[in-house]
Amino acid sequence: MLRILVSYLLLTLLGSTLSAAEPAADITFPVCSAVVDITKPPYSAKGDGTTDDTAAIQRALLDVMGQHKILYFPNGTYLISKPLKWSNKNSAKQDAWGFNFLQGQNTAKVVLRLKDKTFTDAKAPQAMMWCGGFGSADWFHNYIQNITFDVGSGNPGAVGLQFYSNNAGAVRDVAVVSQDGRGFIGFDVGHADMNGPLLVKNLRVQGFETGIRCAGVVNSQTFESIRLVGQTKVGLANLGQSISLRGLESSNDVPAVESQSFTVLIDGKLTSPKGAKAAIVVGKAPFFGRNITTVGYESAIVSEGTSKGEVGPNIGEWIQGTPSNPFDIPVKSLNLPISETPDAPWDNPKTWATVDKFGADPTGNKDSADAIQKAIDSGATTVFFPGAYTLKKPVKIRGKVRRLLGVGNWIDYNSNSKPDFIVEDGDAKTVFFEHFAPINGGIEIATSRTVVLRSLETKKITCKTKGDLFLEDVTTDGMQFNPGQRVWARQLNVENQGTHVTNDGGTVWVLGYKTERGGTLLHTKNGGTSEILGNFSYTTTAGKLGPMFRTDDATVFAFFNEVCYSGDPFKVFVEETRGKQSKTIKPGEGGLTPYITGPEKK
Description:
Blueprint: E1 2-8, E2 35-37, E3 48-52, H1 54-64, E4 69-73, E5 76-80, E6 84-85, E7 100-104, E8 110-114, E9 126-130, E10 140-145, E11 148-150, E12 158-162, E13 166-177, E14 185-189, E15 198-206, E16 210-214, E17 221-229, E18 234-238, E19 243-251, E20 257-259, E21 263-271, E22 278-282, E23 287-295, E24 299-303, E25 309-310, E26 314-320, E27 353-354, E28 363-367, H2 369-376, E29 382-385, E30 388-390, E31 395-399, E32 403-411, E33 421-426, E34 430-439, E35 443-445, E36 450-458, E37 461-463, E38 469-476, E39 479-481, E40 486-494, E41 501-504, E42 507-516, E43 522-525, E44 529-538, E45 549-552, E46 555-563, E47 574-578, E48 581-585, E49 593-597
C-alpha cells in the first residue's frame, strides 16, 4: 500500500555550493590498525596508473568487510580490470552486515581507473565497484569518500559505482567520470531494492547514458550538491524510490531529471547548450520542485500526471497534486533560510589525541571513561576513537576539542552510561561528532554552542539548550527541540515507537526524513515552524498510534510519502489544533496531495 502526504515547505537559494567538492587539504590519519593503507603490506597496491591493482584491492575489501575499519587510499591512480565486489562475509568467513568505510586522501588525486576496452558489452553492464544489496535492509553504515571513479575509454558497458547502505551511509566528495563520455550508468543506487536510507553529497558525474539511477521503492535516498555533465539519455532517473534532492547543477542536451516516483527537487540550475525539449520529465507520481532555473530548454517541466507543464525558464514552485489542509490555508512556502552543514579544518594527525594513548581500551572490555576524558582535556582539537569503547559514566566535551572522530564503531555497547557524552561550554564555537555506530547511551547537548552530528547512530539526542544543531546522515530515536532552537537535518532516520520528533517552539528544516514504526512522526507546537522535504514513513507497526503529523498552534509544511506492507497504515495523517478548534485529515480525504497547515504567512 502506498500513500502520499505533504505539509508546509521552506527553501532558499543554494548559491555556489553545486560544484563537486574537493578538499582544501589532504585527508590523512594516524598510523593505527583501524586505518588500513591499501598501499602497505599485505596488499601493496601500487597506484602508479600502470600496474593492475585489482587483486590487491579486492583482497583488502574482503578483509575489512564489517570490521569497523577505514580502507585508506593514498593519492595515486589505481588501475583495475575486473569488478570490485563487496561481500557480506570477510575473508575469515565471518558475517559482515555493513560497517565498511573507503576513504581517499584527495578526491582529485585518488583515482580508481578501469582499463580501456574492458567492459565493452553495453548489453551486459558491469560495475567498477559493487557495494552489496543482499536481500536485506541490514547493511548498515557504509561510506565512500574522496575518490574518483574513472571508467576510462571504450567501456560502453561500464557502471562507475553501485552503492548500497541502510539506516546510515553516505557517498561524499566523489566524482564518477568517463573519458570518452560512454558508459551505461555513472552512479547507481537502483541496482537492488531496499537501498537506503542513505545520503549522497558533493557528487559529480561526467558522461554515461544515465548519470544517476534510483529505483526500488524503499528505503529513501537523499542527495545534496550534485553536478551532472554530458549524459546521453538522462541526468538523473528516479524509477521507483522516494528521493529528496537539493542543489542540482546539470549541463545536458537530454532531460536533467526523469521522475517516475516520489521526488523533491529544490535549488537547481539546469542548462541545455543545444536547446533540448524538457529539463524535467514527470510521470504520474508526486513531485515537488522549487527554485529551479533552466537555460536553453524549450520547457522547464513536462508532466504526464497533469497533462500540463511549465514553460519556464524558471520555476518558483511547482507541485504535482492538489494541496489539502484542515484549515484551507493558501499554498505558500515559508522561505526559511537554509544553513549549510559546517565543517571543521582537518587537523594534522600529529596533533590529534588518540584515546588509546591515554589508556582507553579499544576492545571495549574495560571502562574507558576516565581515559577518554583525559584525551578530551589534553588540549587537542581533534580526538580520535580507533576502536570500540565501554563507558560507565558520561564523558564531558569541553576545552579546546572541536572534533570527535570515530571509524564507525560502537560506544557503550550495553548502555551503561546515560548519556555517554555531555557537550558543555568550551573554546570551540562548533563541536563535531563523526562516524560512530552506535553511541548507545546517547548524547546530551548542554551548551549554546553549535553542534554537528554527522554519519552516526545514537540511541538518544537530548537538547538541554537552544543552540544550533546540524544532523547529517543520523539515525536515532525520539528527539525534542526547544523554543528558539534552529535545526537543519539531511538524511534523518528515526525509528522508535511513539512520538518521533517534537518541535516545541523551534525551527526545524529536514531534507530527507525516513521513519519506521508507529506513533506521531512530527509534533509541532507552541509557535514552532517545521518543514519536511521528503521522504517517507515505512509504517511497520501500529498505524493507529498516529496521527502521523500533530500540529498545535504552529506552522508545518511536509511533502511526504508512506509505504506500508503490514496492513496497518496510519489511520490519521494530520491532527491540527488552532486555539480551541481541532481538525483532522484521514486517508482518502484529499487523496495523494500535499498537506498545508499552520498560521497563514502574509
